[in-house]
Amino acid sequence: MGRPRISRLARWRLASVAAAVLAVCCAVGQPAYAKGSKPVITGLAASPATVASGATTTVSASVSGATSCTLSANKPVGGLPVTFSCETGSVTREVVMPATVGSKAIKYKLALAATGTGGSAKAKVTVVVGPASKSPGTWRVGAGEAHTCVLLSSGHIQCWGENHYGELGDGSTTNTDTPVEVQGI
Fold first, then answer.
1. Of 80, 133, 136, 137, which Cα lies nearest the Cα of 105?
2. Which residue(s) pair with 63 in the sheet?
3. What are the counts of helices (DSSP H) followed by strands (DSSP E) for the chain?
4. Cα–Cα distance between 130 and 41 in angstroms, integer?
5. Which of 91, 99, 158, 164 is the Cys-Cys partner for 179 at CB 3.0 to 4.6 Å?
6. Dihedral angle over CA of 23, 29, 32, 34, nearest 10
7. Cβ-based neighbours of 117, under 8 Å, separated by 6 or more
């Protein structure tokens, strides 16, 4: 006894059913179980949300269902955009905000985009960068090659940095990261 013969119509129906089953079970060549849920971003925050000109803020959030994240800004910020691996858990990135020019604060919108097998999600947070001249008690800031000085609203001058040749004006040649009062002014 040989194999039973299947008519052309029966083979066509069998092929159609098999194609329908494959279409339901597979998407873009991947099994249905490989598709993930859309990523979720919660608690996006910048701390501090208001910073001085050229200062650092820390951006953090909780991310789930993602494989990669991209942090970007609506205006130029050094080091952004940056893409990094971000699986489920906390995401934290330090961002050095640009130095401002002029007398007005500038608002930056930082965006975190999370991408995963089930799609993408995006969240935004605002960081305000205040001008250096509006920092509490400060009138003017000046910098040398490796030292910085500030004229305070009180009229006093403080400097910090390298002091090999007495650049800081405190009567010493000691380097310091802490502001020292300029003497004799």
1. 133
2. 41, 89
3. 1, 14
4. 28
5. 158
6. -170
7. 34, 35, 36, 67
Within the chain, residue ranges assigned H as helices are 8-25
If we measure between CA atoms, which residue out of 61, 60, 50 comes closest to residue 107? 50
What tens digit of pLDDT does each residue of 117-127 get? 999 999 999 99
Q: Tell me: pLDDT of 72 over 60.
A: yes
pLDDT confidence tier of residue 28, bands split at 50, 70 and 90: very low
**Residue 18 class from Cβ within 10 Å (0-12 exposed, 13-18 middle, 19+ buried)?**
exposed
**Cα-Cα-Cα-Cα dihedral of 78, 83, 89, 93, to 10°?**
-10
Reported pTM: 0.56
Q: pLDDT at residue 151 above 70?
A: yes
